[in-house]
Every structure is written in C-alpha cells, then in structure tokens.
Hints:
Elements: H1 18-23, E1 34-36, E2 39-40, H2 46-54, E3 59-61, H3 64-78, H4 82-114, H5 118-128, H6 135-143, E4 155-158, E5 165-168
Amino acid sequence: MFNIVNHIISPLNPRISPYQALDWGLVNRVAPSVTKNGEFIVKASVDEIKKAQKGEDGYAIDLSKLDEEIDGIVTALVDKFPECLRYTKEQTNFWKRLSWYQTVGHARDWLSIHYTSLEPWEGMTAFVEKRKARYTWVRERAANDQSSEFLHGPYEKECKECGTQGIPSHFGYCGVCGAKLNETT
Length: 185
C-alpha cells in the first residue's frame, strides 16, 4: 500500500499499516496500490506488497488510485479562498512550529556531538546499505568489553614516532606516519 505517511515512528519504531494510520486518524485517505492481474487489492499483505514491488506472480504496483485521490484533494483546494486557506494552515501549524523551534537547537547540538559515535554511524550505514539497523550489535559490543560509543574503540593511543594523539584503541598503526603502535600506547 502507498500513502503519504509510509510508516509512523514512535519511541519503539514500529511500522504500522496505512489502514491502521487511517483508523488512528494519522492520515486522511489511503489509496490501494497493489494489483493482481489488474485488480486492486485493498489491504494488501506484506507478502503481496513485496511480490508487487518485484512484479512477481501477476502482482504489480499501480498508483492510479493515488492519482485519483490527489486529484480530488487538489480540486477541493482550488475551490477555496486562497488567503483563508493559507491562514488556516498557518494557525494549524503554529504549535508544531513553536515546539520545533524550541527543541531543534538541542537536537542539532546532540547530533553534532554524537554524530561520529556508534549509534548514528550504524543507523546511517544501515540506511545507506538499505538494511535493518543492528540494534543489539551495540549492546553486544558493550557486553563483550568493546566500545559501545566508538566504532574503532576509544581514542586512547599515542604515536611515539610523530606525537599524534587520540588514536583509536584498536588501531595497530598510526594513521599519520604509519608507525607501528605499541600495545600500551
């Protein structure tokens, strides 16, 4: 199924179906997009969606119903006073924007400090590689006396050859001069 909100993210990151989002009032409309032999399937299963994405067993993705829904919304918007519509939208979004601007600085600060740590690295790598993030991997590293904060271990070694400091603990060689690092440095 395709809808404007593909999935809703809560603190536990569960994916919910488009029809669940509709039932909860998170979206206004849901349009079926999976077909089998040209017939739309309402509330397609995960397996049917996967087959449609791959074009297997007569399944396909057809966005024509979504186009119809969008055309209906656009037609309804055209038949409204533009200034009243704009102001209504501003009023509707006021509290969302207010809370965003009060918290975005904190989020920016956290990300700038922690971006190179293990959790954001794993999340972004999983996204780029189009795979699920390894959530338990971070905890397993901590349980195995490995760093759960730094990808290559804490920055605790120093090169005696060139004086470079802050080399990750698992590195065997200096990244600046190439010298072999002692286990104790």
